[in-house]
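One chain is below:
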Amino acid sequence: MVNIEEFISSVVRSHAEELYGVSDNIQIQKTRKEFEGDYTVVVFPLLRASKKSPEATATELGEKIVAATPEIKSFNVIKGFLNLVVDASFWAARFGEIAEAKEYGMAAPSGRTIMIEYSSPNTNKPLHLGHIRNNLLGYSVATILKANGHNVIKVNLVNDRGIHICKSMLAWQLYGGGETPESSGMKGDHLVGKYYVEFDKHFKEEVKALVAEGKSEEEAKKCAPIMLAAQEMLRKWEAKDPEIYALWEKMNGWVYEGFDVTYKAMGVDFDKVYYESQTYLLGKSLVEEGLKKGVFFRKEDNSVWIDLEADGLDQKLLLRGDGTSVYMTQDLGTALSRFEENNLDDMIYVVGNEQNYHFQVLKLVLKKLGYEWSDNIFHLSYGMVELPEGKMKSREGTVVDADDLIADMIGTAREMSEELGKLDGATEEEASAICEMVGLGALKYFILKVDPKKTMLFDPRESIDFNGNTGPFIQYTHARIRSILRKAEESGIATEGYTNAGLLNEEIELIKLLSEYPAVVRTAGEQFAPSVIAAYAYDLAKQFNGYYHDHSILKEENATTRALRLKLAATVASVIRSAMKLLGISVPERM
């Protein structure tokens, strides 16, 4: 299949080389909508060689291209910009290729292996709205990278150890009365999260009492009995105390069962799950290696550090004085084992922007240790998700649980779909499937259409709007096209036998947009940006709706024209379905 951008580029460069002996640094871009043309050549880089004005150079190059290239119909010059108009026959030929292509937009195998880590939850609380952004972003980027031909390994690193886990365990021991997910009717992750909040409540009460006795708040926090008990529990866990270890395994088991339900509801999965309890000792050998190489240094208290002040950062702790590791030590070890075990080309971490500094240090330390692949570590950083009511806090139990939000989205989708008559004639089973698709589609699209780096405000009702830049609008466009195609089939109207002759301008514009899809998928993969796919899907749905508003399809009397329009509609639906799949969003057949 002809790559349009590459074709235009090769034509322009070959004629520039012929005329001026220059083909480098020539910029070619899509023509802005206010001007006539399809592609614009910026001729300023050619002026030194052409020794002519921008207008004269552009005119000479344009005349040469049009005379030698049947696919280029005409040109016009505006200052130093050469606008090329592609002939309708070229777009007609492209449409024929697109309409018949299998897996259109998907790249051939690249041979690259990329690991992407996302989710990374703690086992002391359920997944919340922030986790939803993380999971949806990670899963979509993984899917987009697969579409670019890469071998992708999706992994989850579960934070299943540490003081925060012991807080939930201790509170359950003290106040749980043997409560289980079965006896309470709660999902396991919600039950454990309940006791994390319970711990914080009792801790605050104890601190308040100690402050009233005359201690400073800082002292009170350190010597609160419940905190000291949690720290003792952590020490016992690290010593593999049988009773504490069994409790830890039991409560984590409850959480994993709960997580699996949420992941399934979100439509995300993993190829491999790592557990911090199994990886937290990794990296200590790297510290020894760094000491031998003189990259790290040891302080008087026996702790190990690296001095990054010359790199504009600070000194970073790598091993505590008692020999225990910190997060950085673990991440160094984990990165090394992953690259070696999986022969990775790239490693992507989907982690919130509060960890920007951590990953900057991680890459730099690995680089100083001599691991050149550190350049292939990427931190896909994202901002917080806020609600109209404000920020969320886990300890105070004010988070928006992922399960509750998903249920609310599906409920709101049903309410709004019923109001608009979208479920008329559907069975209860069909209605439930549509509402789940629309509710989740609204949530996923609303989150993924935003640049990950931006903090975003999530408004559930705004996201479920059948007009505007929303998931349901795109889903409805797909359902509308499928309805047209079903009616054509039921009426015995042929969708084959079309010709590409006599395309309308609006049809050419749709074909142009369809032809851009492979480049959009490539750009989204290079930038790790689902928002690029989301913007494209919306533009395609919006442009088709405008075309459908102005031009009848089923009522068109000319059979050849009608067949062309049906084929065009079917191709648009196919590309919408493909693009939305890259966002992890399903599209309904009817609505």
User: Anything to note?
Assistant: The first strand starts at residue 27 and ends at 30. The longest helix spans residues 188-212. Confidence is low (pLDDT under 50) at residues 391-397.
